[in-house]
């Protein structure tokens, strides 16, 4: 069945790029509601923004959604990944500013908050998007592809990254995202960047809320953030986290195999546009118990959340 969070949970922090204080509350919602954001600081006009692929305004550094009135919310990918990874299909997310708080740079605090409240079933079946034919997008920077699921699998993911800095370098990872894998393996992996990129972004009015505590900052072969890495391959894990959050803007869980080669937010959103432009490439299926057990939020346990959250 579809689900929602049992009771409201609030997070406070600053936006990574805006540097503005942010207070955000995830509230329960009815079946078929989906995931919507509401700007509580917008008192006149349309303050509701759907967390949907066709509301995404492509940016290189985060996922930003905009409604027809021009109201926007930035950096939604981590909380979207947490909702997908915890199996929450419906929620109203109230926020008092233009950007989701970055917290520690991962999805783990969101996961801990959601799991502390718990998830309840609603009186409507879950539908998933089953990939029937491969779709792909290629750019000069990287590519991404969705193809039919492997036998008896739900969403699986392969990701490849390649950075000049030796602290990151080349990393590859493959995962099946069923049975709480997101919570155990990915949710605590933080956003990352090069020190030179931080300097350039801040000079251009970006990353104003970034610190060594809410991002992994590297310089050549050095990790500048206190405590170093949480995983030796934390960077590629975070890229997979981002991809799950961006794929959840499809409006339903995806049954299929995602491949990302140096892919970012923009490429994943382009991939969803390509998917929905090809009606023969997918179908919407009602999930029985067997299929539901393969979804990313199935089988999640609170004691599996990494201790850093």
UniProtKB/TrEMBL annotation:
Zn(2+) binds at residues 78, 238, 242. Its EC number is 3.5.1.108. The keyword Ligase does not apply. Its cofactor is Zn(2+). Gene3D superfamilies: lpxc deacetylase, domain 1 (3.30.230.20), lpxc deacetylase, domain 2 (3.30.1700.10). SUPFAM superfamilies: Ribosomal protein S5 domain 2-like. One of its GO terms (biological process) is lipid A biosynthetic process. It holds the Pfam family LpxC. Belongs to the LpxC family. Catalyzes the hydrolysis of UDP-3-O-myristoyl-N-acetylglucosamine to form UDP-3-O-myristoylglucosamine and acetate, the committed step in lipid A biosynthesis. This is UDP-3-O-acyl-N-acetylglucosamine deacetylase. It comes from Salipiger thiooxidans.
């Amino acid at each position: 069945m579809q689900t929602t969070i049992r009771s409201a949970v609030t997070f406070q922090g600053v936006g990574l790029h805006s540097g503005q204080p942010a207070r955000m509350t995830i509230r329960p919602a009815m079946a078929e509601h989906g995931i919507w954001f509401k700007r509580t600081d917008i008192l006149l006009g349309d303050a509701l923004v759907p967390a949907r692929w066709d509301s995404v305004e492509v940016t290189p550094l985060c996922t930003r959604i905009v409604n027809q009135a021009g109201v926007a919310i930035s950096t939604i990918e981590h909380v979207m990944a947490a909702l997908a990874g915890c199996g929450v299909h419906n929620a109203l997310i109230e926020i008092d500013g233009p950007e989701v708080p970055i917290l520690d740079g991962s999805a783990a605090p969101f996961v801990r908050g959601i799991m502390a409240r718990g998830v309840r079933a609603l009186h409507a079946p879950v539908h998933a998007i089953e990939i029937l034919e491969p779709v792909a997008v290629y750019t000069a920077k990287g590519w991404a592809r969705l193809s039919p699921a492997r036998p008896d699998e739900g969403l699986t993911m392969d990701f490849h990254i390649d950075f000049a800095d030796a602290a990151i370098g080349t990393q590859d990872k493959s995962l099946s995202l069923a049975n709480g894998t997101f919570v155990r393996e990915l949710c605590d992996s933080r956003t990352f960047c090069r020190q030179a990129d931080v300097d350039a972004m801040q000079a251009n009015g970006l990353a104003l809320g970034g610190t060594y505590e809410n991002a992994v900052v590297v310089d050549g072969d050095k990790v500048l953030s206190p405590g170093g890495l949480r995983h030796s391959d934390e960077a590629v894990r975070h890229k997979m986290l981002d991809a799950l959050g961006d794929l959840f803007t499809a409006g339903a869980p995806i049954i299929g195999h995602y491949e990302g080669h140096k892919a970012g937010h923009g490429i994943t959103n382009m991939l969803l546009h390509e998917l929905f432009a090809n009606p023969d490439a997918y179908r919407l299926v009602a999930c029985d118990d067997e299929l539901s057990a393969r979804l990313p939020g199935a089988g999640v346990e609170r004691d599996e959340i990494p201790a850093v959250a």
